[in-house]
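Lecture notes, structural biology module. Today: joint structure prediction for complexes of three components.
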Amino acid sequence: MFYREAGDFSTSYPEDSQTFPIKFDRYRYYLVLFTAIVIIPFFINDYWVNSLFLPFLIYAIAAIGLNILVGYCGQVSLGTGGFMAVGAYACYKLMTSFPDVSMVILVLLSGLITALVGVIFGLPSLRIKGFYLAVATLAAQFFLVWLFNRVPWFYNYSASGQISAPERTFFGIEISGPNTQAWATYLFCLMFVIASAYVARNLTRGSMGRKWMAIRDMDIAAEIIGVNPLRAKLTAFAVSSFFIGISGALFFAIYLGAVEVGEVFGIQKSFLVLFMIIIGGLGSIFGSFAGAAFLVLLPVALKIVGVDWLGWPTDIVAHLQLVIVGGLIIVFLIAEPHGLAQLWRVAKEKLRLWPFPH
Amino acid sequence: MKLKLTTLALGAALAAGPAMAELVFPSLSYRTGPYAANGIPFADGYADYFTLLNERDGGIGGEPIRMIECETGYNTEKGVECYESTKGEGALVYQPLSTGITYQLIPKATADGIPVHSMGYGRTSAKDGSVFKNIFNYPANYWDGASVAIKHLLDINGGSLEGKKIALVYHNSAYGKEPIRTLEELSKKHGFELSLLPVDHPGQEQKSQWLQIRREKPDNVIMYGWGVMNQVAIQEAANIRYPMDQFIGIWWSGSENDVRPAGDKANGYKALTFHNVGDDFPVFADIQKFVVDAGKAAGAGDQIGTALYNRGLYAAMLAAEAAKTAQGIHNTKTLTPAQMRDGMEALEITEAKMSELGLPNFGPEFTVSCENHGGNGLVAVSQWDAAADSWNLITEYVQSDQDVLKPLIAEDAAAFAAESGITPGC
Amino acid sequence: MPEQLAFALEVTANGLMAGVLYALVALGFVLIYKASGIFNYAQGVMALFAALTLAGIIDGQVPFSHLINAVFGTDVHYFGWNAPAFLAILLTMVVMIGLAYAVQRLVFRHLVGQEPIILFMATIGLAYFLEGVGDLMWGSDIKSIDVGLPQGINTWIDDTTFNSLGYGFFIDNLDIVASIIAALLVIILVMFAQYTKQGRAMRAVADDHQAALSVGVSLNFIWILVWSLAGFVALVAGIMWGTKSGVQFSLSLIALKALPVLMLGGFTSIPGAIVGGLIIGVGEKLFEFLIGAPFLGGATENWFAYMLALIFLVFRPQGLFGEKIIERV
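The predicted structure, tokenised, for the full assembly:
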């Protein structure tokens, strides 16, 4: 009885076409934002930020990016790890070449560079479809990882091939390097997450998003009604790679601080982000967050329960993690094949009628 | 009611009491994942030594030891998570057994004031203690290993490698690329031809590389591998009938897992090492009595005496000795990480000390100082005897070529200092 | 014969052998995709699980020993027997059939008619699950399998080529045996699909589920059959690769080597898997020999295989032998 649109009249076009038309949704959204921005920074500590919040926020951006490509435009891509590596290395080269430029600009520039690379590797999508395209993007993944390993210019000719993020500040507060405060890095990444989600939501609600969805549903029919498939697919790759590049830059500079491309941005990263969006729900911004939360928080929670509370040997807990995550994925898919976002939508639908059953 | 509540609260506060006086040693191990086969014996050795100290001596200097094991699966993100979750418990020293995780921890642990001991792995230039104040890599590092391998070859070839061909088969990662710079300098100095053969992770497929070796017929092959790459390399070398005694691996390519699958054909394979091999030391009798028979062995108890188990034991021994030194310097039983760092920087390992611990001639003698966090670079060569199913040391501890290595280390440390804004100083 | 040419021939021969091994893994993918439209991400893990079970049965390991010891405080590890290879293979096959039945019953029966990407995700969940169970059952240390396959250089080829061409070729005995077994497997599978009743039923199901149902083919039975066949292929692949490099976690990564083969040959064609495998095997080894090692610093095999497959796909988007994708508006 509180989740209704009765009595809520719009008096202008912008009000009518807003993202959250129902008042309850809007207030819920503001409450979440308020908690995230104002309340959490006071309670956060090093462990929470480094093990839970930063990975969640960063993977959420990557998941939003990949969701745009896979969920909205229907092009399955397994090159996410390689594109995150492009973002990270671009950020590293920019950080070391322009030490005085603000981190925000550098991260955005890394995103733009990744978008360019994404467009180049997205060209095969004009000819190849479905799972074949997925395997073709693996070419991008393996090639990019090889490239960053092989060409010494990318890691500034260091003897070891690893890149480390130097210390940088944002408005005088340190956000990269070892001496950062938990709340500072958290808020910096949160800023990007909110901006990314905002941009992605509005892009997908607009004509660009509709073109993508038309391509996804039936690309021949879309071409017939006038959607330019070249433009639509390449912009999907560009926008998606932009977000993935940003997440890669943040992953390297803020979260890990030092990266070795083969181990961190390998193929398991590509599969991980793909799993997040499938579990969370394809074609849904909320789904990206839900999937990222599921795959980041669940292993840590299982480890805390298994090792810290129950005191079992660490390798048994690690194996059980795999068993439980795998089992839960299967259970979720059988219960709701369209992911957590669908469960959320169904819950909201039921809430619209509550307490009346029909 | 009120009285009851306050009594309860008071009781809880008293029960919480003073913090447990313990020495906390976290073990960032990997018993799962692609390198589990190598991570398990090391973690077992590390754990068993501390259990022995607790059971036999009641801890270090009377202070009980608490070892917290955290599974990283050789994954950098999990390594960070393990670090964050254990650093608040009073962790005294971190030994991540992974070059990737070590690079992660170098800035973080330095900022948090906790020392890291990357024994024979990690960032080689951490030997320069004036730049890397919290990072130690005694008794030897990757460049020492490469140099001693060349010295051993010089020895066998009568003092000259002029015109010889040496191939380096390496894991295509930061770890595998470590010796390249050093070997290039040494090839200029001694006149041998170096050829580089990278092997992609995980290293299950090495046909192309070994076909190339079969065509080029290098006089020697040096290997920097880890995990399954080692055993596949040795198997392929046996297949192409490459003479095993011309094949030298770094210490991470010298474990029983790597040579046993090839059976008799692996006989004669050489590996570098910075500690002794086998279980013919008095301390193993103690381990049998206090740890294995008491049912407190980590893991299944079947790795005792293997090369990696001994390495874990050695690492634990060095940590315990550093803790003792720290207790002595600061005149205290409980330690803070900063005090542990001081203990590590003042550590001195002598033959007398090792014999006293039941490990006579187990490792080289060395002293740690502020300028030198990496020992004296003393490395020995061991050889696999397939019939006896054991490793044997075939040389004494030889020092690496300091003339070549010192400038390289200084250069790399200075680059790191410049990049991270550290002022070097002792 | 000029030396470089002899080297190139040797590399080509080895590439063909390597390609056959990749094709062996790709066959499992093709079987399942053909019959049920599922891209089975878990194929590599199935090969690992099959090899682990085989090694465990041969060594007489107690399954779940680590877990049992941790929970009950016992110290059991081995039953004490040493099973002969042939019996162990049969028993492992029984386990794989049981696995196929369980997977069909518990997972895919509930997901009939879902989109391909959902089915793909289900196989991912299955891969995680199977990997965890495999590790819990048999432990994560390296095991070796020895089912009597020969290893080492084939001296006859070495001598013959040395005498005729001046350079002795290196062809591994294991590779030769693997090629023969893979060829036999393909012939048997193709004959099964063409000439037996169940094979025809399988092709009917691959063509159109509804139509197959309407003529009385039991979908469930065919799917269990297909998953068991894929399990058998996984077992053979696991034995081959496990003999070469030991049975441990990295074995599941061989599936990644099979993906370019699938791309090139087409997801739905059994002969395509073989041809694709041969092309990829020769292509990547020749590239490494001619360009990768001398000019690009080596280790190019991984990404070149994908690039090669990508080039082929640009000209034939459904692979060389794959089903032409017909879309109707």
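Point to remember: The longest strand of chain B covers residues 378-385.
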